[in-house]
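User: I'm curious whether this sequence folds into something compact or stays loose and floppy. Could you predict its structure so I can see for myself?
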Amino acid sequence: MKLRERDLEIDFTDAIDAIVFDQMKSNKPNYHGVAEMHRVDFVVELEKAILFVEVKDPGNPRAQAEGLEKFYGELRNGTLGDTFAAKFIDTFLYRWAEDLLHKPVHYISLVTLEDSELLPNFSDEIARKLPPKGKVMPRWKRQLAENCQVFNIDLWNQSFPKWPAMRIAPAEIA
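Assistant: Here's the prediction. I'll summarize afterward.
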């Protein structure tokens, strides 16, 4: 199942189901109807897990200078990590309320940064902001997120060869 976020496409070949969760068009079947909630771009169900997938594209050749300045400013001051954490938490709550979370959830993000040195730190920053925020919760029987990882396109394709991510030509975008 191929999912697109603007001109980035990921082919989740072995998915049971894969939807664009950040659907804002009310005439689409996966429109969620709660605009005030943060949401990840994709929700992908696999045989043994559910993936929440967020995509950010600062490496887009058509990215505007103001947008890039905002992105890097939010990355430096921590608000981008806050946003990514909020997207996971709100999506988790939404899917829990739909009674659709019966498998472990993994939070993976595709961020088209060329500098892969920033990615592990950003992964850790997001993970620290997800409940229980690094605390041990003895009464919890399961975690909200099994893991939280951020990849650029090269690392994504190395880590997930079955789910290739690629930039598609503008003519291919429908």
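Summary: Residues 39 and 91 are 5 Å apart (CA to CA). Helices lie at 65-77, 79-97, 118-129, 153-159.
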